[in-house]
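Pair request: fold both.
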Amino acid sequence: MGITSIAPKGAYPGDTVSVVVKGYGFKQFPDGLLSYVDSLPAPNKSQVVSDNKLELYLAIPATTPPGTYDLTVVGNVGTQEVISTFPFQVYAPPQVALTGITPSTAYNGQTVQVRVYGSGFSQVKNLIFHVDGMTTSNVRVLSDEALSAEIRIPEGLAADWYAASVQGTYGNGMTAASNVLKQGIRVVPPLVLRSITPRTGYAGEKVEVRLHGQAFSFYDRLEFAIGPIQAQSVRVLSDEEASAVFVLPSTRAATAYDVTLTGYVGDAQPYRDSLKEGFVLQPPPAPTSPPPTPTATRPPSPTATPTVPPPPPLVVAWLENVTGYPDENIDLHVHGSGFLAPQEIRIAVGTFSPQPATPLADDVVAAPVYIPWDAAPGWYAVTVEATYPDGHTERQIIPQGFQVVEEYAPMPWFDWSAVLGVGTLAGLLSLYTASRALKSFRRKRWQKQATDKPLPRTCQRGERIVQREKPEIHPGRWKLAAIQATYYQQDPKGQHTQHQMPKKMVKKLDKIARKRLLHGDSEQVQQGIQEIAHEFGTLLLTWQITSRTGMTILLETRLEGGEVEIPFTMYRCTGNGWKKRGKWSLKRNFVNLLAHRIRAPQREESSADYTGYMQREIHTYLKSVVREAARLF
């Protein structure tokens, strides 16, 4: 007699399991078999099914220590005892743990959807997510490491951190209880803006506005705006008072603006409070003339110098076209006031070369901005510098005003694996990678130092210079390459999650754009856009529900067509002049980027209302994508 295997190989404390023992020689004993597991109670039932199969029913006490035990089968033939053993495992009890909650900050009176992270959630039945002082509902296990829940924060709950935990039972009836996360949910009182002083100001003035309300000191950062005009700085003076500094733009008539105070704290959605028509912007007061004097009728002195009024101040309010890819030209628009008075305006993005700007009106100026091919993805400050006829200059800086977006991987035009064969292609790529790696590194370094200026007449032996020659344009067929959705909380370049529209859907949208080029806005084109909008909207909602990085969506459509080639030539000084030592080219696709932001669900907004809003936004956006694609095609 012998045992060859058992199933299952073990159990948890508190389990009652049926163990199937396989082996041989089980029926040769006329008195039957004795079966047991060391240190455990005798089986509830033991049955010999066949000569090579035995079935046991074991009850594992809840207090059984984890470890390996011997499952023993004993048979007697006359006076001879036959024994066979096999290891049986008692597993350590399962553990549920709680590690974090997102978002971890919420406001009094808010119902917030949160993600809870940890481990062991899928093993717990009748799971309860508990937060001290709050009501939780709609708890749903997403995976072994994540669950979602709704939390209702009472109005009068004190501002503080509140502990969170997970409870329930395991399948064997044992109690499941996680660790207590002491800093589970942070409660912050809602921001309240009651009044501001002063409530009026004149165009061109620099004014300090005092804000009166409550809960100012609980927020990490405050932003204050009068209509479209952002405060240059906001300073918290106390829990009930703050100060904001403005330079008011020009206006021809008195205009009443809504004022908005926005608070940012932790990872919570920004909290806003506003006052309807809270500030009135007045045109500059008319100059008052002094009373006439006896000398007022005399002719002016021939040497009298007329008084020139000071130019209106330069005000930068907001920017347009604020994203772009490396090696791309962007037509950046700056909105504000006072753009017609300067003699020259130059606009710079980060450390890129400043560009002369053209005023389109007193409240808007445009400048071409070239993003270098080696520009790192991220946010860059935008500097607007104005030079006036009297020689003085004014400068306005918007931190994080322009975003360089990470470039997509190039999309191949040919399937070289089909032409050369997979094995041949792999060998060629390996040789190419090994031989080009060092050259590629060196060339990137030289490309950063390249110049388009003529070679100097004198040089030192061994000196090297790389010249960047005039780019060569190679027209090509435009196509809709990709549509990307980025989910984020506050900054799309911070913590974010990205998803790509399926390729089949992109190709279908590309075909619709080509149909529009031929047939205009036909019923077939409109119906095709509607179908894709509905299908893509369902995908976006699904990705949004599973997103761990935020619920605001940035949609980016990439249109590619043609190619620009930038030649580089390296020269080395030999002591008798410059000698050409090498030449190469950098190639980039022409890219047109269309971006659109879809806001996150608002407080008290039902899921049906938000779904309707998202579907409308997606339909409008895809219509503009098709229109722009058809124009380029």
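--- second member of the pair ---
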Amino acid sequence: MSFRLTKYRMVFHFLWDRKRALLLLFFCLVGQALLSIVEPWPLQAVFDYLLLNKPIPEVIAKHSFVADHLLGLMIIAMVLIALLMGLALFGQNLCLVKLKQQVVKGLRVKVFGHVLELPIAYFKKLGSGEVLSRITADTDNIQAIVEGGAILVFRSFPTFFGILCVMLLLDYPFAVVVACIAPVLAVVTYYFSDRIKQYSKYKRFQESRIMAVAETAARTLKCLKILGLKNQELHRFEQFCDASNEASKKAGMYEGAYGGAVNVLLSLGTAIVVLLGVVRIREGHITPGELLVFMGYFRSMYKPVREFTKYLGKISKASASYDRITEVLEITPCDLGVCEAIDAVDAPPFSREIQFDRVCFCYDKDRKVLHEVSFTVRKGEKVAIVGESGAGKSTILNLIPRFFDPTSGRILLDGVDIKNFKIISLRKQIAVVPQEHIIFHASVFENIALGCPDRKVCESEVIMAAKKANAHEFIMRLPHGYDTILGPGGVELSGGQAKRLHIARALLRDAPILLLDEPTSGLDPYAESQVMEAFDRLMEHRTIIMVSHYLPLIANSDTIVVIEGGQVVELGQHGELLRRKGVYYNFWRRQLARAVPGYY
């Protein structure tokens, strides 16, 4: 089994934070190893010196009290060893719980923090189910490395080699024969460990796919029901479950074969010990009591081997999970195309313009989204980006805060390429109202206050932002007002309410650049009027770049950028573009015909 110490340095780092528990665990496990070595000797004394009347060794005979009360003292010794062993086991379990939870928590926080640093492309590539699986299930599996590693290193190995040394001192040839089992076990272990790890890793992959299907189904349940897709999704879910089960069966098969091979070897070893022991007694090399010690030691040696067998599968599975975790942690934003320059500086306050200069972008080599896109947005302007679905409109918005970076070309902020700025300083100047409803599992107050994460927001600021966003009234009707918990397990908001909460968050952020992605989609007329009134307040004194099909927003824009096939095909104001009777004219006619049937 591959267990390079440097590979698991992260685990050691988190363990080191609990030095006292780690030290106590060390003493408990080493203590158990020492107790296992001395455990059979009281029985040997009783058997040889009391039952078989063998001469008591001089070192014991010269102490008359010990010689006279040997039986009672040996019984006390056996009881004391059992009590100390129980106490050590209790301490071991207590320390292991603390240490395992420390490692799981540390890894989860580290992986989650790193994932949040990665570009959006990572989530698009891997999928939410796979990401969740690595943050939760894979980190939980690492407990086996802590438990198995500690027990094997501090108890099993010291017990095995300590007993072997004592056996060598007692009877060298006898000990050598018994020890010959160890190399055979090592070969068997090496053969099975990689196969167990391989199938365990594949099983974890399939479980992440199962989680992705379940998560998607929960999120799109209405759609599944209305389209009658239950059977299709169930079939897909069942396929991934079957693949996971098959991998689990393969791993279980190898684990079972390994356990069986170990049992055969140990049974063979027991037979050899008995046979050789009888021969050595007849030859006068050992006493019957010492044979009992050898038998006890062989059982004690059997325990470390059994533990090794037990933890082999668990550590192999945990190692597969650890590999999946390190895969995430080794990915950098640069690997995904969004890299912060070493000499990046803080972005100065936005003062003049945002310029797209021959920007091209593609998600992969065979899928070009934008081609030679160029336009300028001056400070205080409202720019609408229009076009058919899939034309690349939302991609343009995603490039400004550097969720993605252009494949070629530049985006300039006041004449400077945004790649020259620190990402966090660039994003501080941007507020986003997305198309989807992003509500955090937190109170209403916290959901709005998240617009300003760098400072403590007072209650009056949040309430003022909510009032400007036309959200205060519906918030006060919620069960606990601003303290009402939203999201899963809490109160669910309507589309219009969620949108107004987004606007309140953006108002509180008070960023000079505002990005709007289909801000009125999916709203009923009343909610739309409430939201539009809030948008009017939000857009005051700000630079607006928006993607929208909402006619009043488009028509009132200072500039309209028309995208078709990933390219800018028209650019100008509403009236000017209508007079050209080109792409925008046809787009406007279609939109107006939908809004006012029979108009054209």
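Observation on the second member. The chain has a mean pLDDT of 82.
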